[in-house]
Task: structure prediction
Amino acid sequence: MYRCMMDKEAHQLKDFLELGGLKSTKERETILKELEVLEEHFNAEKLYSILSRKGTKVSRPTIYRTLKLLERFHLIERLDVKKNCFYYEPMSHKKDHGHLVCEHCGRIIDFASESIQDLKSEVFEGKNFKLDNISIQIFGICETCQKTSKIKS
Amino acid sequence: MYRCMMDKEAHQLKDFLELGGLKSTKERETILKELEVLEEHFNAEKLYSILSRKGTKVSRPTIYRTLKLLERFHLIERLDVKKNCFYYEPMSHKKDHGHLVCEHCGRIIDFASESIQDLKSEVFEGKNFKLDNISIQIFGICETCQKTSKIKS
DNA sequence: TTCGTTGCAAAGCTTTTGCACGAAT
DNA sequence: ATTCGTGCAAAAGCTTTGCAACGAA
Result:
């Protein structure tokens, strides 16, 4: 299962890196540190601009490479939210949950649900499919946008 | 709600087109006709090559534009399956269902589930979120690939 | 005739890659 | 001393756009 992230990410990463004969660099630590405090869903570009603004700029290629690395180690998870780019889940979001994606403002809201577990059991029992990761997106209009409904049909 | 598609797509489309002051062209009909018989999930490039092979080639820009049009009319639905491109649901797939996406061979298998309805009710009751469309992807390894498991961990 | 539509070529955007330099072990 | 990682610039891959020619109403 992806999606899940331990508390001491840094340690984990270092272990993984060592195991894989990979190196711990200041760029990787910068990114990891940012992800530990990041509350929102993000993509490569957003991370790039956050770090740039903070004066700890890391190049785009390195950001992309590092995100891939972290994904491979299941330390972050890639989302699928109808944008033509990759979005990621912050490390702080842990257990199984789905995403409410507002089609008006683009906001992504996590939601937990009993039914997700049911769904997994059903699929596991019904089909001979080795589950890895479940990804649930519900598209619609969030509360805020419904109120300020400047929404064109 | 997206995802749902009536039987007489062509009629529907013509109505929509008329309503919007849009025109019915042979390119749009070619695409629509292909989508009516297409069994598999597809993307723009796949559609392009199918039509090209059949000798009813339509340019890429037109394919992209038409798919967008059909999506706008809720005649097809865009999927989110961890590829860096848009995948669509064929018109023949109707009611609420999720997708099992094999991470090894890339195959997409539809599955229906009671729990999807539960999930929708839960969200509808719990949050003040105006539902539009639910998108469920379960990633893992399909039966076939498990058997022929040449899978690198 | 009037607009919407098409195809081409070019541009746009996100992501990836080649390569030389630099840093970690 | 190796070997891996970084940044730059360039390429790649998918999608969109500008524009002139075309075609449906």
Observations:
- Residues 60-72 of chain A form the longest helix (13 residues).
- Residues 21-23, 25, 27-28, 58-62, 65, 84 of chain A lie near DNA strand D (CB under 10 Å from a C1').
- Residues 95-153 of chain A form a domain with the Dna Ligase; domain 1 fold (CATH 3.30.1490.190).
- Strands of chain A lie at 77-79, 87-89, 98-102, 108-111, 130-141.
